[in-house]
Design brief:
Elements (H helix, E strand, L loop, with lengths): L1 H14 L4 H9 L2 H9 L8 E8 L3 H10 L7 E4 L7 H4 L4 H4 L8 E2 L16 E2 L21 H9 L7 H11 E4 L15 E5 L5 H12 L14 E4 L1 E2 L1 E2 L2 E2 L2 H6 L9 E4 L2 E9 L4 E9 L2 E13 L2 H11 L2 E2 L1 H6 L6 E2 L10 E3 L3 E3 L14 H8 L14 E7 L13 E6 L10 H6 L3 H14 L3 E8 L7 E3 L10 E3 L7 H17 L2 H4 L4 E2 L15 H10 L1 E3 L31 E3 L13 H20 L1
Parallel strand pairs: 1-2, 1-14, 2-11, 5-6, 14-26, 15-16
Antiparallel strand pairs: 3-4, 6-8, 7-19, 9-10, 12-13, 13-14, 17-21, 17-25, 18-21, 18-24, 19-20, 20-21, 22-23
Helix pairs in contact: 1-13, 4-19, 8-19, 16-18
Length: 616
């Protein structure tokens, strides 16, 4: 009976690809959350004491909770604002739809002056996970650690212990790799909690793209290995074709065995409790079912709430820029540049190419009962359902403008087996806040014709534009104000322009020409006054089809006390405050040559050792 119920739910989920209302109803069923409350009725006890309180159950938070609770003498509380994953979270192809659910905080930027012109009110969507598993439960599952030079630069700026040689063991500790041809690679481990594997569902388009990239001079590479430069099929945080989130990897396997690990879902933290005289963190105040509670920490409070929520909670607790806190009436505990820096990877959604293949692009009408039965009952990891939102390959390249060393890429090309038309103008368009006119003018005809096509997202790794985050008021339920200031430095646009040109050059290679690849030449609304394909046209398109892959960093920047931009030390301790650390991607000091999910796991692993070394 249980399998029948699960199968029915799965079929509903897959069919809902073409019916967004049905997907919304499926999400609202809340069956997984009801089961969570039934099996794990963790009702908080006011004034309860724990050795460690971890706020946020994302990649770093789950990793840290699992590692610290290995010591049976330590009581660990993991506090999360969201609920638990359900079946839809496990199906990789539904990644885009998850950004329309309660599992996403649904943040948006302030209106942008130089970007996001194709979005309503020029507001960029900024997805962040609000669920046990955090953003690892709603992202596109791309596993990309970064370049060795990223981490060496951290160490050179005074963050001792964070060089590539020193962090690689923590990447390896977390990983359980099942990657064809890399079984003996010293850059991969096969016994960690987090599954990393090839995406076995591959289209003819990706095979042609990989071959064409090689023909264009980009060698095949393991981008998590010796060198990033080149092209590779994507490596994904999936297990047997299903999403493998931080909660699935680190918490679910050990939860029933650790009576000292207490997990509190649906618990919204309002502020940290800090002693004025000693500037020592001693607990948290939070709400559960509209009732306030206090937890006390005997050893440390640890913020793992992510690049937006960790700085927000610091500022709500009196730790941050004096001018902002004074203006909204929050008493100052410690003046620090919290939220003063915000880096993000901005990309251009395109170019899109049409091809002569048949049945290769991910359209909802191409999903059937056979896919569902094979995925669920046969545990087949090779169905369309295991596609990670259509992402199939990555190419790491250097633009002619790059001043970085030759082994340090500045651009990434992300091949997606589709476009905004892939889900018929539902999740991708709505999740990114694109205007209807963008979809109707550029992509709707692809939906109607069902013509095979693919898109190359062009992403810049090292933007010069720097944004910031601050509080609008002292209400802990208010969103922070987020201004990434995308493209405020015009050089970022020029870098992406070079990536578009390289994408088009690759499309002209024999392997892609063999499947009839040609550029979709429909002008983007707002850019019609430029000649299509000219540099000025693409500059306009870049500022219109601006698309973030939610890799925000540096809002709680790591650096020595002598660094006026730093919030935490190399031990991840908040400067000037005792017994308080930040352990998540907000501490990353510079925009990495990576997608940030892998780094979040590494930060959690390393922080666990730092904490154990101090308290064991």
């Amino acid at each position: 009976m249980f399998q029948v119920t699960v199968l029915t739910t799965l079929l509903l989920a897959v069919n809902s690809l073409a019916n967004p209302q049905l997907l919304e109803q499926l999400q609202q069923l809340g069956l997984a959350n009801l089961l969570e409350l039934s099996l794990h009725p963790n009702v908080p006890q006011n004034q309860a004491s724990y050795d460690f309180i971890i706020v946020g159950a994302g990649a770093a938070g789950c990793t840290l909770a699992a590692r610290l609770s290995e010591n049976p003498q330590w009581r660990v509380a993991l506090v999360e604002a969201g609920g638990v994953e359900n079946l839809a979270h496990l199906i990789p192809v539904l990644a885009g739809h998850l950004q329309l659910t309660a599992s996403n905080w649904n943040y948006k930027s302030v209106p942008q002056r130089f970007a996001c012109r194709g979005m309503y009110n020029k507001e960029c969507a900024l997805p962040r996970g609000k669920v046990l598993g955090g953003t690892s439960s709603i992202n596109y599952m791309i596993y990309n650690r970064g370049n060795r030079r990223d981490f060496d630069a951290w160490a050179e700026r005074g963050n001792h212990g964070w060089s590539y040689a020193e962090v690689l063991p923590y990447f390896l500790r977390s990983e359980s790799a099942q990657l064809q041809g890399l079984e003996q690679s010293p850059y991969h481990n096969h016994s960690g909690p987090l599954s990393v594997e090839d995406v076995r569902q591959r289209s003819q388009m990706v095979n042609a793209f990989v071959a064409a990239s090689v023909q264009a001079g980009h060698p095949r590479t393991d981008y998590n290995g010796e060198s990033q430069m080149g092209v590779s099929y994507v490596q994904a945080t999936t297990r047997n074709g299903r999403r493998h989130s931080a909660f699935s990897a680190y918490i679910r396997p050990i939860r029933s065995q650790r009576s000292n690990l207490h997990i509190f879902a649906f618990s919204r933290v309002y502020r940290l409790l800090i002693e004025d005289a000693t500037k020592s963190a001693y607990g948290i105040e939070f709400a559960y079912k509209k009732k306030k509670y206090v937890f006390r920490a005997r050893r440390e409070v640890i913020l793992s709430a992510g690049a937006f929520n960790s700085p927000q909670l610091l500022m709500l607790s009196g730790i941050g820029p004096e001018d902002n806190l004074k203006a909204i009436g929050i008493p100052l505990v410690q003046a620090l540049p919290v939220g003063k820096r915000l880096y993000d990877h901005m990309s251009h959604f395109g170019p899109t190419f049409v091809v002569n293949t048949t049945g290769q692009t991910l359209f909802p009408t191409r999903f059937g009962i056979a896919d569902s039965l094979s995925f669920l009952l046969a545990n087949n990891p090779s169905t369309r359902l295991s596609s990670i939102g259509g992402v199939e390959a990555l190419a790491f390249i250097k633009s002619p403008r790059s001043k970085l060393p030759k082994d340090w890429p500045d651009l990434e090309l992300i091949l997606v087996a589709g476009s905004l038309a892939s889900d018929e103008g539902t999740a991708l368009k709505q999740g990114a806040n694109f205007k209807n006119e963008i979809y109707d003018n550029v992509f709707r005809q692809l939906q109607i014709s069902q013509q095979d096509h693919f898109t190359l997202l062009v992403m810049q790794f090292h933007p010069k534009s720097v944004g910031r985050l601050w509080l609008r008021d002292a209400n802990p339920l208010s969103w922070p104000k987020i201004d990434p200031k995308y493209f405020i430095d015009p050089d970022d646009v020029e870098q992406l322009l070079e990536g578009i040109k390289e994408s088009i050059r690759i499309s002209k290679m024999p392997a892609l020409q063999a499947i009839g690849t040609r550029l979709l030449d429909i002008p983007v609304p707002g850019c019609e006054h430029h000649r299509f394909g000219s540099d000025d046209y693409w500059r306009c398109s870049i500022r219109t089809l601006s698309y973030t892959l939610h890799h925000q960093v540096a809002t709680c920047r790591m650096g020595p006390a002598s660094d006026a931009t730093a919030v935490v030390s190399a031990q991840l301790k908040v400067h000037g405050v005792r017994r308080l650390r930040v352990v998540d991607t907000s501490v990353i000091p510079f925009p990495p040559t990576a997608h940030t999910n892998a780094a979040a796991f590494m930060i959690g692993e390393k922080a666990a050792d730092l904490i154990k070394g101090e308290w064991a």
